[in-house]
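Chapter summary example.
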Amino acid sequence: MRHHIMTRKLILSTKFLAILAIVINCAFCQGRVTGESVVKINSLNYPNPRRDENVFDTYPKNTTIKDPYRWMENSDSEETKKLIEEENFLTKSYLSKSPFRTELETRFKELYNFHSYTAFFQKGKRFFSYQRKGSQNQDVVFMHDSLTSEGTVFLDPNILSEDGTVSFDPMFSAFSEDGLIFGYLLIANGSAWKTLHFKHVEQGDIYKEILYNVQYTSVLWTHDNKGLFYASYSNQKNESERLKMNGGKNMKLYYHVLGTEQSEDVVAVEFPNNSDYIIDGWISDCGKYLIVTAAVVLGPGNKLIYIADLDKINYQIKGKLELVPIVTKLDAKFEYIANYNRTFIFKTNKDASNSKLITIDIENPDPKTWKNLVPEDEKYALESAAAAFNKYLTLSYIQDVKSVLQLHDLKTGNFIKKFDLEIGAINELYIFTERKSPSLFFTFESFFTPAIIYHVNLSAPPFNLEIVRENKLKNFDREKFTAEQVFYKSKDGTQIPMYLLYKKGLQKNGNNPSILYGYGGFGASLLPNFNIDPILWISNFDGVYANANIRGGGEYGEKWHRDGILDKKQNSFDDFQAAAEYLIAKNYTKTDLLTINGISNGGLLMGACLNQRPDLFSVVVSEVSVLDTLGFERQPDGYTLVPEYGSPSNEKDFEYLYKTSPLHNIKIPNDPNKQYPAVMLSTADHDSGLPHSLKFMSTLRYEARNHPNQKNPFIIRIQKNAGHGAGESTAEVIARYVDLYCFIIMNTGSKFHT
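The structure predicted for these 754 residues follows.
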């Protein structure tokens, strides 16, 4: 979920801060924590936000549900701003008392201080790479004359802001077909709203024009290099106005001629009868066609496909294009891969849970004429595909939660070669090929291996792997650690995979501090990617870090995804709880030492599991979360979540949403010997999910107000000038993880060591 930019003012009075500081110090500072005990918090010292008992909504079957903190959904109000300042002051004061805070900051900075290469790719005669040196906040684009040259800085977003909160979006930025112009999207303060800029490769000049009102868009260059298509919204002068008027609806595809004002851009595609459609697309390899997609969910969701013949109109885009419908039912995912003449190759999960490649003749697009090019693999999921060198297809599969890369023939689909890789992950965003170029680049990593950039010369069989660059951490020996994959049974007997990371020689005595991470949504797969925070946890806490590959993800294709969404969402929650039970039963850890963590959809997972099994975990950390599943549609772009969660206005959907909504199922135990785990919510002032966290935290404390046995703390961390995670600077990442680990230390007694 996304949110618009807003400013924050310090609105607490000096007198109030002074009083609050005294209260907090009394509650928190009964001596410094030694690491052998945990820090408790007196719930009477929490902020006491206003409740409006007269606010309610009526749902199916005339079910009336109160929403006393509805006012928190207005993030611009002075009352909400004041609450944010109170919460941050409380949280900062609490976390500042953590032992090992200085050591954590030092160690995180040390681990992040390495030369990171994210990707290499070729455009025109030049090579480009994304790099981040040492503690730089954002990736820098470098330009190289050859694969062995050090290169020169081409685009550095770090100089665009003092605090490193301006970044560029590599996922959607793109070079013109001749490789001479770079169209790049800039993100400020984590906002979902971006600006589109242009830079000349040879001259180094940045064009004067800036395209505004862009949010989710690809940069689609026409092959005459004169202009591009992009998605945007009309008639909104600023971000606040955009959200109030349409909440991200009524998207249009515009055509922009380079060197002209945005006001001169023409609407090339729109669907006035379907305001929810998210429009995107591709320019075909040959440049003759614009492939248009229409969807109602962000990312790789179900799509309609249309094609416009640009060659037919001699690339003169003066108004709305004539669209030929190719895929007319919104019931499957489709991704353009390549075409030769009027035969188009698409990746799809239509009648193929694990996805496949098909060909469609756009002169006769009847589904009965579609042909399989690379049939579905019955066991493994096809994650990505790309065409290269006019001859080949590169196919990346997920095989039991690890990446496998294969080479196939473009015309026949026949298998040619499987590349020899260890257990790890290929980032599908960083597989780069050009239809006319023999160069294949991809980024490979594993839990203990930072990114390795590989190059394959497809003009030289047997297509050997060549390492172009390799990231290496300082003071880290990967040979001391192991990644174990286990399979455990969920509540309904389904076998669920999980990776466990720990030091070699781990004693399974139940005394190991552990973090269990999960996501389980939107078909996203948790592959063996490299991350700094698990490295620190297992190396400096002798801990166990677990990734549970629960249903709702895409590890085993669309069926795995479908088995964890809508009315089957409880499967995700059951899978995750079963993972915790496995870790305890097998003596990796125990409840008192177990922390669970999830982000975004994973934050919803945390909230549901907190309510359903508070006895199972010691600490719950939920980040930028969806916690009010009866109210998410009121948030900007909330409608895009309906295909995944359902709509509370629908009777069937309402039943399961109400039953599992974290906000509406808080039940503090009455048993004097039981309580809720320690809870930390982490969100941001530019995230549209901010109201979810504020409302959930306020409700959690309200429900616990009369339970003196509730000693575990409930706190919320609200990051300033940040959003849902996009463009987060290195400094912000480190600060967030230091706070997260401090909270775990304070509530499990875990000890840091060098």
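To summarize the output: The first strand starts at residue 56 and ends at 59.
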